[in-house]
Records
---
Amino acid sequence: MSYILNNIHKSFTDGASNTRSVLQGISATIEQGDFVAITGVSGSGKTTLLNVLGTLLTPDSGEYIINGTNVTLPGVELEEIRNKHIGFVFQDFRLLPQYTAKENILIPLLANASKVTAEQEEYAEFLIKTLGIEHIKNQTPSTLSGGEKARVSICRALINRPSLLLADEPTGQLDAENAEVIASLLQKVNEEFGTTIILVTHDSNIASKAKRTLRLANGNIQ
Ligand SMILES: Nc1ncnc2c1ncn2[C@@H]1O[C@H](COP(=O)(O)OP(=O)(O)OP(=O)(O)O)[C@@H](O)[C@H]1O
Ligand SMILES: [Mg+2]
């Protein structure tokens, strides 16, 4: 899979009708297997760019081409693209509080089926083992540490075997040591599964785990 942004613009209008141009002509090509860090100061548009990459946000103009398909055109089944190809790790993790860690990981599989197959369950166990959270898999989110929640969230994002993993400041709430562990796990996912990873972080230490860094400033990649 390849992901090509071509001259992407995105503005927002606030309640007082002031328009802010957040993305001002972003172009970038991300090939399968890449590991890209997106950095930039608060408000520089990192989350906005990640949401465009995840097809959660439609740009005002420009093209976004996923494997040859321009997904900014009307009529494209964005939900199908997202479910099949893209995994998300949100900054606040968004785990469901009433379910255990393992149940949270299995939940995306239940969007299109009434129960989980034996093969899917086996894959969940493999991810749980790979991310080192076997010991907490039966705990609910409120009983987990920040680093454990991050790992559960990464497993959940990987359960559908996405080709692209998008992670928005997954280490933002962690201490330096735990942030480093999570970044190393993402590196392992990139290397061992070949998953393309786009990681938003304001931390240059964490960004250094990626293969390259795109720095956002003044609406563009510097
Ligand atoms: N839905 C929206 N409506 C209006 N303005 C928005 C909206 N989403 C984002 N913005 C504005 O766009 C700018 C970029 O926001 P964005 O969330 O992409 O920044 P960021 O780089 O992720 O910041 P942070 O590091 O604080 O998470 C900000 O000024 C924000 O206020
Ligand atoms: Mg953000």
---
Amino acid sequence: MDQDFREQLERRFGTAPAGGDRTDIPDLWRGLAGRGSCRRFEAAPVDAGLIETICALALASPSKSDLQQRDIVFIDEPALRASLDGLLTPGQPWIAGAPHLLVVLGNNRRQRQIHAMRGHPFANDHLDAFFNAAVDAGIALSALVLAAEAAGLGACPISAIRNHAAELSRLLDLPPHVFPVAGLALGRPVREPMITPRLSLDLTVHRNRYDDAAQEDGIDAYDRRRDEIMPYRAQRDPARFGVAETYGWSEDKARQYAVPERDDFGDHVRAIGFRLD
Ligand SMILES: Cc1cc2nc3c(=O)[nH]c(=O)nc-3n(C[C@H](O)[C@H](O)[C@H](O)COP(=O)(O)O)c2cc1C
């Protein structure tokens, strides 16, 4: 493992994995180790052919049973983009500055259409139908990000597109059993990515059996390590939660999910035909 790669992993996790004596580090590994989301872009658009290639690579990623239950919508109609920005930018003004916006969809409709085409019953109308399509879309989202970053682009997923799932679905003409999973802001980054520290590997990589005995100490240690490298610039909603003397990742995430978020998404998913039992 060479020095640069090791340092990136140490910054990310506190310690680098053993890594053996491998010295020929694949480019993809370097890209993953050093990657970071991008929320500030150059104004110039990216070549449409490059975006199409990135979409193709994303859809080359694994798919459950090769069911291919994910699609990508590339937005290039200015009026539509303005409508989507209208939904997304309250709270996230940076999105308007992204030259491109894509939406990754979970799609269980095609599977049902195949059953109608081939005359077989669809005998899996339960939670798994939604879950599989959502996972497939998540895998494609990840591959979209990695393919874009490998081409020198910047990208950031946007879960806020699900804040107004029904309205977004109307704008994109999404039919039943097709649902938004995430948006993706895309463009040329104005600066190098920042490496966001992650929880240490001994908390998140288990050997044989799940073990969270060291969880609280591990989270406290992560809070401190992260604070040294990437302190929070502001505390979340001090009017509601007060001002904490020490403010780290765990306080921020607990505050974030102390407030309901997208609690109508289940209603939307049921309304477009999914049975979630
Ligand atoms: C499914 C998904 C949805 C996300 N939604 C948003 C979003 O709405 N706004 C945002 O600024 N970042 C969003 N992100 C980016 C995460 O905040 C980011 O990945 C995380 O803070 C870790 O930072 P890094 O990607 O730079 O390592 C999202 C990421 C994922 C995977």
---
Amino acid sequence: MLTTEQQAHFETFGFIVLRQAFSPAEMAEITREFDDVLAEDRQGQAFDGAKRQGVLGFIERRPRLTRLVEDDRIYEPLEQLLGSGFVWVGSDGNLYVGDTNWHPDGSNLNYMRIKVAFYLDPVAKETGCLRVIPGSHQPPLHEHLKPLMERRGDATWAPFSALPAEVPAFPLESQPGDVVFFNQNLWHAAFGGRTGRRMFTLNFAARPVNEGHIDYLQRVYQGNLKNIQQMQYTQTGRVYTDVFLHSDRPRIQSMVGKLVELGFK
Ligand SMILES: O=C(O)CCC(=O)C(=O)O
């Protein structure tokens, strides 16, 4: 459970880090599964570091990883921040290559979505930790930052007279076992990480209550479907699995019910 102050931190700044929420023994298990899933996706090939490897539908591939979404340490904060009836969007496991440029995951300021990120190696400001611009999940700062995206990937682009790596931001330095929760409208980036930086994310959205929300979920689903069909190594053709969509676990059922109703597969 989050304290009232932690909730206020999330609401005001757009993120919260839960320090050492998972023990070293749990992280060893989770990391082993992570490495296994990413290796399985590569079908025996070594990771050559030429570009990011991203595996969508990541946590559904191992029961130990699937359990994370119903774990009190993840589920309860989400219920506090998103409200009851929140829905599953999806997960990805990643080996990153190079910097991640400034972006929000979306600009749908009327619909709350949260990303939960696990960094599996220690990461600091100059070594690939997530940097966030506190408060940028809300207007007007959210909109004021849009020039940052005009020339993505250009390391000399400085619309605010600061190079990308010097844009004023807060570094979410973390150790394995820490869990980052952030509002997906928040502007974020990462600089200086090693090739093969390991992280995975779980993504959720508030209960959809209007056409705009449903429309958003449909668009994300279609986008994920396209991405999954174009995955670098293994194409499953499905965003979700039947086992997950028809789970007998009450917490999982509650987050996928709407997706089943919408015909997502
Ligand atoms: O860790 C990173 O490089 C960035 C992660 C990110 O942008 C995301 O998951 O949306």
---
Amino acid sequence: MPTGRAAVLEDYGEDLKLWEVQVDDPGPGEVLVRMAYSGVCHTDEHVVTGDLPLPVPMVLGHEGAGVVEAIGPGVTRLRPGDRVVLSWLPACGRCQACRSGWTGMCRTTSRAAEKGTLWDGAVRVHAHGRPLSVMSLTGTLATYAVVPEQGAVAVDADVPLAQAALLGCSATTGYGAVAHAARLRPGASVTVIGVGGVGLHVVQASRLMGAERIFAVDRFPARLEAARRLGATDLVRVGEGEGDALVRILDATGGMGTDYAFEVVGTPATIAQAFNAVRPGGTAVVVGVAPPHEEVSLNAFAFPSQGKTLTGTWYGGGDLAEDVAALLGAQRAGRIHLEAFLGEPFPLERVNDAFAALRAGSATRPMVALGGEP
Ligand SMILES: [Zn+2]
Ligand SMILES: [Zn+2]
């Protein structure tokens, strides 16, 4: 039973605290992962604020990569020493959603995630003699994580684990929004509202899939500049003294709007803005995670008269192993630039500085180094 350290949210609105934790050996079908890197995501921040109320105290973090240290009974796909990306949405394969092919809506996983446990209520992390909940079956802001075998995807030995960590949430979500939810066609025009940690991946994936014109909308100049480097053709700054973003996009497209719009903020206003930014017959995709009680107001007449589609995506809606392979193939071919998302990593002791960087609109993904890169 290894002893490790974990970044724990003791109560909503507080800074994270570093706790010494005891981690059980992996149970049947589980693997113990020595964590190398964990990103800090807006969904973590939603837990900190209480907008996404999960049971505390909880080990936060759900975007991570590391090295398998031990495997539980019955594990067949992974071996100690494998470098893995962790999934916060593993498919049990047995629930009604999984059996209907909706593995991204796995009920076993969503029930466990609400309780902060693994499948079937198992808890593998303890502190002060008590079980400790972990975020989204992962809890990556820790030196160790125990996850279901289905929640770890092996990558080649030469893949840098900080890049691999991005594939655990932001890169895959952004890519899947474009490739699966929108099924973006080459030559398309695109609006991306919010070019932070996920939105920049939407920009990059849109370019990868052949979009010709990409409007990036954000209030932070550094993020807009990053969007430009990753393929955005039109930068639309919002905020005080700036014009209305929607008006500017409509003006620039002959009053039509773009073929696709991606909302990557998670507010009712920006969701409506994305819907209004697409041309008749176009598709708007909600990627941003709004607090669960929020509602959106849209013009009802626009649905029949303009034939627009409004849809959403949760973790990209694809098969994680396939999407990881596609993204790493594109990275190898120089067609995407995961390295552009990475700044200097924060040591675990400075995890709260990583959250501060997220809140300040960092143009790179705040990444916490956990020591497990061999
Ligand atoms: Zn995330
Ligand atoms: Zn399932």
